[in-house]
Design goal:
alpha+beta, Heat Shock Protein 90, 5-stranded mixed β-sheet, two-stranded antiparallel sheet, 10 helices, 7 strands, 61% helix, elongated
């Protein structure tokens, strides 16, 4: 840093030194032309004094210049409201620049404040709307349940499936609206992942029944320190995708402990495997990006590209792992990993 400051100082003041040297040469030249007695020698004494005082001032000016550069570099490395920590202006030009910086920072703070306010209002509105829409959804479910025993059983079942999908889309919107405040909403406890997954499967029973797919879930032991609500949402999204993109065959859920004695430590895995249409290899690296739907999403016009993005964000904050293996036409494996070192 010191060498950089030295080079910058020399570069900025080289013009003054050159003008000073040129002026001295002109004076010496004029004195020589006019033939003044001992003029060159007498002027040399004055020149030595000028060089001494100029050098002394140059050292002082460089120290002040270096101090200010270091202060600015330190401020630049900080985060937050850096404009409040700027050193005092040393000249009019610096004062003008600082005024511009202050005004720009105030405008930025005003825009951010307005954005945060609008974002908060929008999140509040979405949350209120989702809670309000749950009331008619619950009422419609009760009405459909009353008709489930009658002649219109098939129509009632189909209507129940569509109603369930509406409710899940509303849940997704609610979780998306709450994503920014996820850290403050987490409640970590030790849970059985199998039990949480069993409840998610039970919740999706209406879609499993209507899909006509085979289903198998092996019992396994997997403990995890996690947030039950948010992990359940992740598992539900994985089940929803498996159902959405599987038209024949079935879905299998099982646990795996193959990571024991391997480099990635003692990790228990939960695998949701389907025999669906699969994912293209070129799409796999991007499936967790927000809004990315890939080839499958373009085929299914209902896809939003939000579900897996939410899963990745939630899993990362829960300190679990999530990866996907898939081949087109062969199906997809979604693999959730849970660190088991705490339970050995």
């Amino acid at each position: 840093m010191n060498k950089l400051i030295q080079k910058a100082y020399i570069k900025e003041h080289i013009g003054f030194a050159a003008v000073y040297g040129l002026g001295a040469m002109i004076l010496f030249g004029l004195a020589g032309l006019y033939g003044y007695d001992n003029a060159v020698r007498n002027m040399s004494y004055g020149l030595v004094l000028i060089v001494f005082f100029a050098g002394t001032y140059g050292i002082y000016d460089f120290i002040r210049y270096r101090k200010k550069c270091l202060e600015l570099a330190d401020i630049a490395s900080q985060t937050g409201e850096r404009d409040y920590h700027l050193p005092d202006a040393g000249c009019l030009m610096e004062g003008i620049y600082q005024k511009m910086v202050y005004e720009e920072a105030q405008e930025r703070r005003r825009v951010i404040s307005e954005y945060d306010e609008k974002k908060g209002d929008m999140a509040d509105y979405y949350t209120m709307w989702i809670h309000q829409i749950k009331t008619p959804i619950a009422a419609m479910r009760l009405l459909l349940a009353d008709k489930a025993e009658g002649a219109g059983y098939l129509e009632g079942q189909q209507a129940a499936e569509e109603l369930f999908k509406i409710e899940q889309y509303a849940e997704m919107a609610l979780h998306y609206a709450r994503l920014d405040s996820l850290s403050s909403d987490l409640l970590f406890k030790k849970y059985s992942v199998y039990e949480i997954l069993k409840q998610a499967v039970k919740k999706y029973a209406v879609l499993f029944i209507g899909s006509g797919l085979s289903f198998s879930m092996e019992e396994f032991v997997c403990q995890a320190v996690t947030d039950e609500k948010w992990l359940a949402f992740v598992l539900e999204q994985i089940l929803s995708n498996a159902l959405k993109y599987t038209k024949k065959g079935g879905i299998v859920i099982y646990g795996a402990d193959s990571a024991r004695n391997r480099q990635d430590g003692n990790v228990a895995y939960v695998v949701v495997e389907d025999s669906g249409i699969g994912i293209r290899q070129e799409d796999l690296p991007r499936i967790f990006e927000r809004g990315f739907t890939g080839c499958n999403g373009r085929l299914d016009k209902r896809s939003t590209g939000i579900g897996l993005y939410l899963c990745r964000q939630i899993v990362d904050r829960l300190s679990h792992t999530l990866r996907v293996e898939s081949r087109v036409g062969e199906g997809t494996k979604v693999i959730l990993g849970f660190d088991q070192q705490k339970y050995d």
